[in-house]
Design brief:
This protein has five helices and six strands, in the order H-E-E-H-E-E-H-E-E-H-H. The chain is α+β, with helices and mostly antiparallel strands. The protein has two domains: about 100 residues, Ribosome-recycling factor (Topoisomerase I, Chain A, domain 4, Orthogonal Bundle); about 70 residues, Gyrase A, domain 2, CATH 3.30.1360.40. A four-stranded antiparallel sheet has the order 3-4-6-5. Strand 5 and strand 6 form a beta hairpin. The termini are far apart. The model has no long low-confidence stretch (mean pLDDT about 90). Pfam families: RRF. One of its GO terms (biological process) is cytoplasmic translational termination. Belongs to the RRF family. It comes from Massilia cellulosiltytica. InterPro entries: Ribosome_recyc_fac (IPR002661), Ribosome_recyc_fac_dom (IPR023584), RRF_sf (IPR036191).
């Protein structure tokens, strides 16, 4: 393993941490409806838990209503029950062959809770990035110990890893600031 491999690996892992955060922030509810909030609702599909998008077509009916059309008609009640029992606080209703999921407007208190949740997700992402930095630095120290690189090379590589970490933290802060603004907008 070389210095370039260590840096590339660290860069890739930090990028994955940021992508994970982006996905987690997409799940956080804002005042508007979007189908992504139902992506992680699990439905009992013939005895096995299955993600909702695998058993139904999700669409936006209007700005505050999501339409869920099951691929199999007999899944209507199961889907409605799964959405109601999820921790999203949604109250679906069946309308013919469609489950309508109205998303209630967020109260100021609920918006603040959502912002706290976003900040918590960001902190988890920062911890993941710092762990990647720590692992990369340990690998660099091992390379020095094995006499594969000099201490000067190690120091330069550690500086590069630190710059990557700083950039990743700035990216995380930007993502959270954007989501916070989106959540707090009425």
């Amino acid at each position: 393993m070389s210095v370039a491999d260590v840096k590339k690996s660290a860069q890739d892992k930090m990028a994955k941490s940021i992508e994970t955060l982006r996905g987690n922030l997409a799940k956080v509810r804002t005042g508007r409806a979007h189908t992504g909030i139902l992506d992680h609702v699990m439905v009992d599909y013939y005895g096995s838990p299955t993600a909702l998008p695998m058993v139904a077509n999700l669409t936006l009916i209007d700005a505050r209503t999501i339409g869920v059309q099951p691929y199999e008609k007999k899944m209507l009640n199961v889907i409605e029950k799964a959405i109601r029992e999820s921790d999203l606080g949604l109250n679906p209703s069946t309308f013919g062959e469609l489950v309508r999921v109205p998303t209630p407007a967020l109260t100021e208190e609920r918006r603040k809770e959502m912002v706290k949740l976003c900040k918590s997700e960001a902190e988890d992402a920062k911890i993941a990035v710092r762990n990647v930095r720590r692992d990369a630095n340990e690998q660099l120290k091992k390379l020095v110990k094995d006499k594969a690189i000099s201490e000067d090379d190690e120091r330069r590589a550690q500086d590069d890893v630190q710059k990557m970490t700083d950039k990743a933290v700035v990216d995380i802060d930007k993502l959270v600031a954007e989501k916070e603004k989106e959540v707090m907008t009425v």
